[in-house]
Amino acid sequence: MSIIGITTTVPIEVLIAKGYKVVDLNNVFITSEYYHKYIDIAERKGFPKSSCAWIKGIYGACVENNIKEIVGVVEGDCSSTKALVEVLKAEGVKIYPFSYPHIHNLKDVKKSINEFISSFNVDLKEIERIRAKLNKIRNLGKKLDKLTYIDNKATGFENHLYQVSFSDFNEDVEGFKKLLESKIKEISKRKPNSKKIRLGFIGVPPMTCDIYEFVEKLDAHFVYNEVQREFAFPRANNARNIYEQYYDYTYPYDLNFRLKEIKKQIHERKIDGIIHYTQAFCHRAIEDIIVKKELNIPVLNIEGDKLNTLDARTKLRIEAFLDMLSDLKEME
């Protein structure tokens, strides 16, 4: 089976229909014990110190794992991906560009996906058959999510880990299905936790995954992971076809579209405060201005760079933020 790397969530149904094993290079990078090695590879190649660690990590993961074909999302995700794929192309990697259209309308989404389908010469009926199969597994993601914010049994990290893995179905569709079924059964048997503060995590999935364990020690619980949840396509069953499904996917489109769903989830999940994670040198950090203006609950912006653990300053800021939320709850 041929392997193809992806730089973020793409219409994976098309790639599976073509017979590829899909590998999300973000997951290869961040789950590696030697993740910093991938960054070093990119910097030795000439990637500037001031470029995003994720971009450097993706490059390093691609080179180190000898990935020869990549789908690069050149619009609707990282603004540096276009330059990244140009470098990889010059090194002999075959690049399939994909764009989430800047103008969020169904017509343009359909055009973009049709161009993607044409690149791989696959049948739409087969794509829809695979979509139906994958959406049954995505329903397991919804069950896990409910175990987090309704039953209060799954941890924020478990919610993050398994939902973010939907970008490539953990590189093994059937194996991932069995893993989710087993994990859901295990979590269902737990007693609910009783954390005082209910948090939401918005923004790109973090480099610093220890944030989930850290807040739990401070009587808080992440009950919402915005982008990770979108990777799992929680509203996929409402879509009549692949075009509608990827039109409804909030992450790659304008911030106002994302905020509508975020506001809905804040209300539904009874969230007390939001942590907005951004990556150093990323254009999305500027969006924090609008996020704080539009959301009617407290928001803390934290920024990650190369470290995969929280630094002391960020821990202090989170602790102060949670103290404030605790005081606000006591005043209610």
Automatic annotation (TrEMBL):
Transmembrane segments: none annotated. Its cofactor is [4Fe-4S] cluster. GO terms for molecular function: hydro-lyase activity. Pfam families: HGD-D. This is 2-hydroxyglutaryl-CoA dehydratase. Coiled coil: none annotated. Belongs to the FldB/FldC dehydratase alpha/beta subunit family.
